[in-house]
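Try this one yourself first.
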């Protein structure tokens, strides 16, 4: 609950602020609530492709239920992986949501 309240407060600073959240169970709870309010998110503490995929799936679900965040910024949410600490090679994944009801476009390339 504290992470959610802090995120809401930080988001008030400017419409283009992305609230930084850890990619943990508690971070996903906060991510859900903040995204319901149209708040941009920067997921951190990302160590694996599975975490990247979980963030991607969560973002798709949130956009289908609540729509994209086009009012605040021309981009959606961010993922900040710890590439140097990963034990597996991480591929850069760019996800574009050109239309709220259309298919997303996922682009993979090695870092």
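Now uncover the answer:
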């Amino acid at each position: 609950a504290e992470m959610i309240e802090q995120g809401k407060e930080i988001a008030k600073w400017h419409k283009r602020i992305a609230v930084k959240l850890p990619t943990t169970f508690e971070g996903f709870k906060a991510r859900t609530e903040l995204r319901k309010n149209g708040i941009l998110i920067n997921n951190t503490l990302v160590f694996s492709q599975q975490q990247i995929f979980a963030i991607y799936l969560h973002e798709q679900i949130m956009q289908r239920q609540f729509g994209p965040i086009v009012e605040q910024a021309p981009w959606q949410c961010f993922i900040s992986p710890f590439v140097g600490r990963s034990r597996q090679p991480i591929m850069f994944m760019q996800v574009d949501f050109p239309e709220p009801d259309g298919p997303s476009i996922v682009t993979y390339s090695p870092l």
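Discussion: The longest strand covers residues 40-46. Confidence is low (pLDDT under 50) at residues 102-111.
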